[in-house]
Specification:
The protein has two domains: 54 residues, Urease, subunit C, domain 1, CATH 2.30.40.10; 161 residues, TIM Barrel (Alpha-Beta Barrel). It has 220 residues and is of the alpha/beta class. The protein starts with a strand and ends with a helix.
Length: 220
Amino acid sequence: MRTLIQGGDVVGFDGKEHRLIRDGVVVFEDATIVAVGRTYEGPVDHRIDARGMLICPGFINTHVHVGIEVMTTLLDIHPSIIQKQTPGADPARTEMISRRWLSPSLAQLLKTGTTTFLDVVSSGTLWWLGNPPGDVAILADVVGRFGGRAYLSPGMRSYRACMDEGGQRVYHPNEREGLGELERAVRFVEKHHGAWDGRIQGMLYPHAVDNCSPTLLKEA
């Protein structure tokens, strides 16, 4: 089916640079864009009136914490919600809670124009739910079902940070744990890279320069 979107301001690309086309049109057929410009004279099966709106390619967000976006809003309304939602040992309930939290965040991203994102999941996609097993795999599946694109893997770090009694940051090294997290991330990438028609891509995420050892960074 061929569809015409009547702008609106259209952000187009002429092969060299992006251009803003006032009152432009975008025509696509199935998953292929067939025309971008000021007018289109060919036949179409469906028209979308987007006058007064901006029509542009999907945004790429390079730093997202999908599992946190909705949580921060809900905590302002119901501070006790974390205790109520903390999963127990039941894997089915854990997955249900994970999907419940992730889905609104992904819907929010799509609604605001983001179609591709990098989830910096170094602390765990759902760390505030105790990092349920398979949380990043659940995220990959939810993204695939929503129709988005994402670069994912579990994160890694070789130092854990905390505050001492004087309020100073203290680092506790654990090289073996960091290398184990790297192995987990590699296994995830090997299994999920290219899933959902290539919309899920694997990418390694060292947590930060201050809590990843040189050894871990070189191995990654």
